[in-house]
Amino acid sequence: METATGALSRVSTRLVLLLTDEYKYNLPKSMREGTMFLQSELESLEFALKKLSNTPTDQLNIQAEILARDLSELSDDIEDIIDTHMTPGKLNKKAKFNLMFRCMIATHMIATQIGDIKSRVSEVHERCPRYFLVIDDIWDISVWQTIRRALPDNDIGYIIITTTRNFGVAEEVGGAYKLKPLSLSNSQKLLYRRIFGNENKDNIEDIDKCLNKELAEVSKRILQKCGGVPLAIVTTASLLASKARNEIDWYDVYNSIGTGLSDSTDVVNMRKILSLSYYEMPSHLRTCLLYLSVFPEDYKIEKDRLIWMWIAEGFIQCENQGKSLFAIGDSYFNELMNRSMIQPIYERYTGLIYACHVHDMVHDLICFLSSEENLVTILNGVWYTSPSKLFGRLSLQYGKEDNSKPLRIASLEHVRSAVVFPSAFCVMPVLRRFRVLRVLNLQDCDLSRGYSLEYLGDLFHLRYLGLCATHIAQLPQQIGNLKFLQTLDVRGNNMFSLPSTVVQLKNLMCLYIDEFTRVPNGIGSLTNLEVLSTLDITVSIDIIEELGQLMKLRVLHILLFIGWSGRLVECLSKLQNIEYLYIKIFGDNQWDFGGLDAWVAPRHLCRLDIEWPCWFSTLPARMNQSYLLDLVYLSIAVRDFGQVNLETLGRLPALRLLKLSVDPKNLGTLGGFIIGAGLFPCLVLFQFGGSIGPIVFQQGAMPRLEILNFEFCVQAARQIICNGDGPELGLGNLPSLQDVKIYLRSRGASKEEVRELEAALRHAAEIHPNLPKHQICG
Fold first, then answer.
1. Range list of β-strands (E), 663-747
2. Which domain holds residue 162?
């Protein structure tokens, strides 16, 4: 198929040559029109053929192979005609007429052939499957039947693969294919990569040489018991990585596995292997892991939400005076991740971990152990506790009205946590039934349908209150009674103000509210706050003074009136623990220049996101590679900005996302920028606005850049970077580029100049090896 596509492309190019001034006037009008028709038809056919060539060869039938052969022969015929017409030398009138006549007949015949082939290509293309659908982890036949009803009736046009651990589901879908276990060689690679990390080598023989004979032997025996199951191998490897490299400790692991999975993939055996890592963990990590059973299978668990819940449960104790509870909880999270008990979910651009998944086999284990140890009672149709059993922690994941009777009968006086999901909210008991509740999480449940928060103030022991997206308009005044409350999350609601009694919550460490929700006077008394998002200080400038009293703040999101940023600097200078600062400016269209100039970023700043039109006069002090080692996200506007400043930012070691705006009035005549080798080593997204001239990327710059978005002036570009072939931006020097957006400011340039530059930039993007998506407009 690729041969036919290349042949068509070659012939199409030669037809263009035939229509140049040198040859077209030697053609009669009818033949010129025929040639133009052929060129158009071939371009259309080439496009269809390219789409067909994207179909895997094993999915193409014999008809497509015949088409490819016919197209190659057709291309040869057309080339023969072209070569005949372009034969050098003069011909007599009769010979010339005969030649023209033969060419016209051949052209007509070829046009007919092309029409036929186009129809055949379309037919083959329609018979090929163009989507591929993967449905992961189906547990029940009824689930598949629901999905099947949403699909087309016929089976032409798509391929479906499902994964399941239920053989009956596989048979119902259309037949089972049992995945083969990993080979010994691949099992060794997976094991050693997890144990040795950067020490690992691709060649297994080289790794074996690093081990003594006994370790090499016991590792092979361990892998035999793992039976080629990746999860078993990774889990076991995580356990071995924490042990000394001696055969005694490794044989202890081998003997603990028991019969393993070498002869069976039974869930019980897999659970036994996973439980080895569980029992090797210290007790505080075990408790934190089992607590994950409050979340349903495949649930995306937000990292910060989980840590605040751990803190509220009392699972995290202060180990030393210099470290916050949240920082300790963060270390617990990382340790569970390093032990492969949870799977991290990364933000695309910053690379920071913001959530996690729990593998379904690990989830099965922790639900089993949690039930055995009576840590969490789960109501989801699978895990169930008898009504006579005392509830310590409730996770209501799925329920119907007729299932609610056990909860009404059972004693709820000892329930310490209630985590409720929308599909089970119908069985949620009323709040007055609880007495010692420490965690109440109703996120995403609709409380507007009659569920009352009237008795919320009676939950004196409450530490965590999650009411995000629950459709509430206000909190009761009695919330001030919750003296132990540490986390309050009321985002995603139509709540315009917090009760005045909120300022009595002296133990509050985390406050999540919407940007339009007003806080009462006295917010400065909440001196234990570490997270405050989002604080609206457009109502009263006095709140800025109170903000300066919250010395423990790590995360701060602010709404501010333009012109008040100068007053904010003194406050921010006191908040030296800030890791994430977001400032959004409101006001008229006048830019606020220099309001934040005196501010010095704290050393541990990780994200700085200042929405325009709040401008720094110059790049803030100490924004360099030796001071801001942790900065990964920077969105900033700078009035006076030059090449030196760009290079300063380019040396920040962890920076992954940069949104930069500059003032074109201060960039001189041309204002172009050059990004040299070694700059921005980790940057993934770069957005640059306000530049007069373009940015030129040299070899070795921004090796990880995926998203590029910037603007510049057409005239400046022509003066700086245009040569005879077009602009030399150096897009080809960005090896990871996936998406390009360039806006051309056309003032002072002709329409033709703009069109030429647009075309040249598109060409630069189209010839990039990655074929990035691109949008170039003037």
1. 673-675, 685-689, 695-697, 707-713, 722-723, 726-727, 739-745
2. 132-173
